[in-house]
Write a structure and sequence with these properties.
Residues 72-93 are annotated as: Disordered. The chain crosses the membrane at residues 20-42. This protein is mainly α and 93 residues long. Helix content is 65%, strand content 0%. It is built from three helices and no strands.
């Protein structure tokens, strides 16, 4: 019983050291500030740049197809749902 308490304490100490030794509300507040800054400085600008590039590509060629959604995962052997699949396999059977 004491061994799992000791290992839990070690994990808690390790996580505390990773976060710079901050505890409680100040720790949570610092992570919220860091995450917000990271989002607005890196994530959001890269998403906007990607969207602008797609819009520019779509505007330059009116007949060009731009994929806007991810394919649906398919649990069958092909992996993705795209059009007519397994035609050759069905013809053999």
């Amino acid at each position: 019983m004491a061994s799992w308490r000791k290992s839990a304490g070690n994990v808690r100490s390790f996580v505390g050291n990773l976060t710079g030794g901050l505890r409680g509300g100040s720790n949570l507040a610092s992570w919220v500030v860091a995450g917000t800054l990271a989002y607005f400085l890196w994530v959001k600008p890269s998403q906007e740049l990607k969207r602008q590039q797609q819009e520019k590509a779509a505007a330059s060629d009116a007949y060009r197809y731009v994929e806007k959604r991810k394919p649906i995962p398919d649990p069958q052997e092909t992996g993705l749902i795209y059009g007519n699949k397994n035609k050759a396999k069905r013809a053999e059977e």
